[in-house]
Amino acid sequence: MTSVEPVGARQAPVTVVIPTYNRAADLQRALRNLGAQSAGRLQVVIVDNSSTDNTKEVIEGLMPSWEGRLRYIRKKPEGPAAARNTGMAAATTPYVLFHDSDVELTPDWVERALAHLEADASLGAVGGYIVYAFEPGRVNAYGGDLGRMGLAWDIGEGSLLDSKQGSAPRIWINCSAMLARVPAVQQAGGFDETFFYGYEDSDVGWRLNITGHRVAVFPDLVARHHVEPSPGGAHAEIVFHYCKNRLRSVLRNAGGFNFWVMTLGYAAYTLLDLIARGPRGAKLRALRWNLARWGETMALRRTLQVQRKVADADIFALGERRWLPPTPLGGQRRRPVESAASTSPRGAAPVSDDRV
User: Fold this and answer.
1) 103-105 and 177-181: which strand pairing?
2) What is the CB neighbour count within 10 angstroms for residue 122?
3) What is a GO molecular function of this protein (predicted)?
């Protein structure tokens, strides 16, 4: 049974939101870890995207030991973005920790992250090092960067963990482990629920910065990510979601002259990418998807841009000023993909992912 804090321990002002799909074993490990956090008694909301394993039974079995602080919400499979919004809507605390089921935090992670947020009112969200569980001395991410063609990538991926690295502002933070102020995420528009998979964390991080809520990483926040040692092959449905989400994010978020720079940059990159490699059908479908929703995206754009407090020039200065990621994955992932069944609204989706 998952152990939790003794009765009488202080309540932490944090709700943990965990989107999941068919990861009962990972959830048990994550809950053991969260129950031992030094910050105190955490609220946890599990948002299940219609798992077919024993996730529901496992969570129900753990509920008594959590004394009313563990909630289970089952919903139709719409991806991690929609699941995070569902979990955040259920939160009654001022802070929410977006947490993937395959992540383990250091014992004082939440306490330290809270201290960073409470020490600086300008911060909307904080994170830290994500390291590989199969090699804890190697970095999965230390925040994220964004290129001028809309491509997003993890900073420091594959590098050695450096405990002497300083804190740093970022354009976005990997939502595997990100503590945020609920009002800040709400003002930024929450997660875009049309994304289904990919780019939801870079998109919301960009919008947090736009609306004046800084995001930053701190070296004393370390989370272990239980993923495969090697990326799997590219999957057409994942490529579709990556391409459609990247363009949607650019069209909605890019401000002023940068809108034209990034839109034209996306178009040029996509044309060359279509010529160079497949899956071409998935990439063309992503373009058609965005054209069909042009009016909706422009309405979201107008709502966001009137709230803009920080220019894109200042936001992109937080990154490495690269146009392309140092190690493009091209649709590859460190989570397994199966296509025999479908959780995607359009079919042929990854059904073994821990969140969708």
Assistant:
1) unpaired
2) 9
3) glycosyltransferase activity
Residues 206/301, Cβ–Cβ less than 8 Å: no
By the 8 A CB rule, do 212 and 309 touch?
yes
Neighbours of 84 (CB within 10 A): 28
Q: How many CB atoms lie within 10 A of CB 275?
A: 8
Provide the CA 303 distance to its chain's centre, in angstroms: 22
Beta-ladder partners of 45: 17, 71
- Residue 95 domain flag: yes
* Residue-wise pLDDT tens digits, 25-34: 999 999 999 9
Instruction: Answer yes or no: is 1 within a domain.
Output: no
- Look up residue 219 and give its two tokens: 């070296």
Domain count, the chain: 1
CATH of the domain at 249: 3.90.550.10
Neighbours of 3 (CB within 10 A): 10
From the number of C-beta atoms within 10 Å of its C-beta (0-12, 13-18, 19+), residue 294 rates as: exposed
- Say how far residue 173 (Cα) sits from the centre of its chain: 7
The neighbouring-strand residues paired with 20 are 48
Q: Report the mean per-residue pLDDT for the chain.
A: 90
**pLDDT value at residue 342:** 42
Number of H helices, E strands in the chain: 11, 12
72-110 per-position pLDDT tens digit = 999 999 999 999 999 999 999 999 999 999 999 999 999
Domain coverage including residue 104: 12-356
- Answer yes or no: are the C-beta atoms of 59 and 72 closer than 8 Å: yes
pLDDT confidence band for 330 (50 / 70 / 90): low
Evaluate if residue 174 carries a pLDDT over 60.
yes
| Structural domain includes residue 122 | yes
